[in-house]
Amino acid sequence: MSKLEEVLIQIQCELVAERNVVNPQEISWLQYDILNLLRNKNNATPSELSKYLGISPSKFSKAIKELKSKNYIIQEINKLDGRGLFTNITQEGLTFLQSVDKGHKFLYEVTKKILSEKEQEDFVNLASKLIKALSKERMERND
Question: Is CATH 3.40.980.10 what the domain over 25-141 is classified as, yes or no?
Answer without folding.
Answer: no
